[in-house]
Amino acid sequence: MYSVHCLNNIAKVGTDRLGDNFTLTDNIDTAQAIMVRSASLHDVDFSHELLAIGRAGAGVNNIPLDRCAEQGIVVFNTPGANANGVKEMVIAGMLLAARDIVGGIEWVDENSDDPNVGKQAEKAKKDFAGTELAGKNLGVIGLGAIGAMVANAGRSLGMHVYGYDPFLSVKYAWSLDRHVRHVNNLSEIWANCDYITIHVPATDKTRGMIGRDEIAAMKDGVVFLNYARDALVDEIAMSEALQTGHVRRYMTDFANSVTTQMKHAVVTPHLGASTKEAEDNCAVMCADELRDYLENGNITNSVNYGAVDMGPMDGAMRLGVFHLNVPNMIGQITSLVSGAGVNIENMTDKSRGNYAYCLLDLGSELSDTTIAQLSSIDGIYRVRAIRK
Q1: Which of 95, 169, 294, 323 has the most Cβ atoms closer than 10 angstroms to its Cβ?
Q2: How many whole angstroms separate alpha carbon 15 and alpha carbon 11?
């Protein structure tokens, strides 16, 4: 029986999917798995019981990935599960920027007590005139699950779409509308696009990637949309560009002390994935990933270890070994197992950066003494025995 601790509200459709071999616990120190959405885990001391963390969402900047990897804790996310919800929010952002809908609503609210409000509205509406999206140029930075959907939606709205992604996967390349123009340099997006939206993770390489120079290179009157991560944009530089009118609108889902004071910004309180459907999809995917890992040792959609899938466990024992990605680790593991007289029937080892994961199907059970010897090898973080 595995116990799971939920740090945030996780949709019941997901937790129900865990099955009879799982129970929910309020005690994080006894849990083998954590399901989390936005709660920060950076200051949490993980117990030795913890085997996995499932992030019901895509971003994992609230989780200490390297520390987890060095403790043999697999961190999962749910890429694409909330993509449609975020895509629809981006489309809403473009429409709100193109048409002064917010200004119009505010006018009606301010004049709601005027008995002649209908007649006055006909005169006032010229102050809220906007433009249409059809025929405009849309630049999409990052063509993963969300970016690809946004690019295709832009095409459906009659926009000319420029897409930039130096790491474009085959999966998402096939999903793109054939009329999306793939560019190899961001300067093409800065020079040509009336609307620019960004969909990349926040990493050391992407933080602040939309800075003063990038903003200056954009077309006058550009609309910039950020429904990905606030850390991607130099908000002081963006605020200055809004004041001069170089950037016409900044549409962002990240309310903070800077964005809420920006002129010509429309700020929402992180609503991108806040739909029932997205929360359900994330919870279901997260539960499936945790269950397959805890019961079978398989890893799908991990952000700190490589993908490994050896199917359902049906042998005497399955052994998971987390180790430093250096030469001769596999040799040491297999020598110790075979030296104990145990046959290795199947094995795979996948690395991700400095960390690697070896999964072995054994013909008979390995003794606790041999498992302890494996654990003591320099460079091995954790050894996990999975028994039926």
Answers
A1: 323
A2: 7
